From TrEMBL:
<dbReference type="InterPro" id="IPR010970">
    <property type="entry name" value="Cys_dSase_SufS"/>
</dbReference>
<dbReference type="Pfam" id="PF00266">
    <property type="entry name" value="Aminotran_5"/>
</dbReference>
<dbReference type="GO" id="GO:0031071">
    <property type="term" value="F:cysteine desulfurase activity"/>
</dbReference>
<keyword id="KW-0808">Transferase</keyword>
<dbReference type="InterPro" id="IPR015422">
    <property type="entry name" value="PyrdxlP-dep_Trfase_small"/>
</dbReference>
<keyword id="KW-0663">Pyridoxal phosphate</keyword>
<dbReference type="GO" id="GO:0030170">
    <property type="term" value="F:pyridoxal phosphate binding"/>
</dbReference>
<comment type="similarity">
    <text>Belongs to the class-V pyridoxal-phosphate-dependent aminotransferase family. Csd subfamily.</text>
</comment>
<protein>
    <recommendedName>
        <fullName>cysteine desulfurase</fullName>
        <ecNumber>2.8.1.7</ecNumber>
    </recommendedName>
</protein>
<dbReference type="GO" id="GO:0006534">
    <property type="term" value="P:cysteine metabolic process"/>
</dbReference>
<dbReference type="InterPro" id="IPR000192">
    <property type="entry name" value="Aminotrans_V_dom"/>
</dbReference>
<dbReference type="InterPro" id="IPR015424">
    <property type="entry name" value="PyrdxlP-dep_Trfase"/>
</dbReference>
<dbReference type="InterPro" id="IPR015421">
    <property type="entry name" value="PyrdxlP-dep_Trfase_major"/>
</dbReference>
Amino acid sequence: MLDIARIRDDFPILQRRVGERPLVYLDSANTSQKPRQVVDAIAEHYLQHNANVARAMHLLGAEATEAFEGARRAVAAFINAGRPEEIVFTKNASEALNLAAHTLGSRLRPGDEVVISVMEHHSNIVPWQLACERSGATLRWFDVTDDGRLDLEGAVREDLINERTKVVSLTWVSNVLGTRNPVAEIAAQAHAVGAVMVVDASQAVPHQATDVVALGADLVAFTGHKMCGPTGIGVLWGRYELLAELPPYMGGGEMIEVVEMSRSTYAPPPHRFEAGTPPIAQAAGLHAAVDYLTSVGMDAIAAHEQNLTTYGLEKLGSIDGLVILGPTEAVDRGSALSFNLTGVHPHDVMQVLDSRGIAIRGGHHCARPLHKRLGHQSSTRASSYLYTTREEIDALADALVFTRDYFAPRFGG
């Protein structure tokens, strides 16, 4: 079991108060809070080791380069990558997915197909739309069942993954529904027809032990700021053989071998995809975040969140007038809980809860097609993490009952 009191001591922001009430932070799917160990690592880098990487041939340059490449090694070990060179640093998961879509998209032709799902974050929809528009390929997608699972039977009926499929790109865990998708199974289907499997793991890597080899994917994207790290740094992991085949995404310094006026040659992965000055201090912070999560234990974090999710589903499910989006049992499910109160707009829910010190998110969570499919304009989302307590779930439930009763005259209560 986690020592939650000790963990919470590492996050000074959790000691804040909102007026007379303690802060209840339930927006970790949006961005996680940062432990002092991560903040200290970033400050130390700027104060003691600041220089550019791979360019400056002096002590500070060597220290900065070692910090950056050390972070690459740490991230590789954290997700069981085959080698550090399989880790490409980006500014966030959106850039990682755009990199995947742009480079893989250069190989698409009319008649080819790309498969995504209706539950994707916009970052895993729009880049593939653009790739298909540029290439003439066709975009297709998995539907979802009414309870928020991928419609695997419907996909078989529609022959969704077939000999024309060149790329399958899916979220591992939905940022709205919490649904955990059978990525390894779908990756096997993709590979059977010669397609590349891309995974958006932004809501998975922070919450559970990850083995990209066992996952069966070819490219995996995630971001630092959702896993106790800083903003400004994301990751694209890829099988080295595939990365070596892909063209550059952006041109500039450090991604080249030789530049002539007539043509250029490019560095091997990962540097081929890291043009210009990279997020050096952010990498130091991500390294500290990886060390922190490893010290706590990813299996322990996953067990804690499973317990909280079970408890949260029970508490919220018992509130009259509250509708949960997605699976209502904590089976193959992450910790994001999205819901609606009948007759109350999510923005109103969010505002009332904020007045009571509870931070959640209201809107379509960058997943508008999913909300439309499920018949909701938007939703309210509460999301927990390693520092969340049962008492905070209780505070959420009490505040939702208050909110429902406050707006009751609007819908006949």
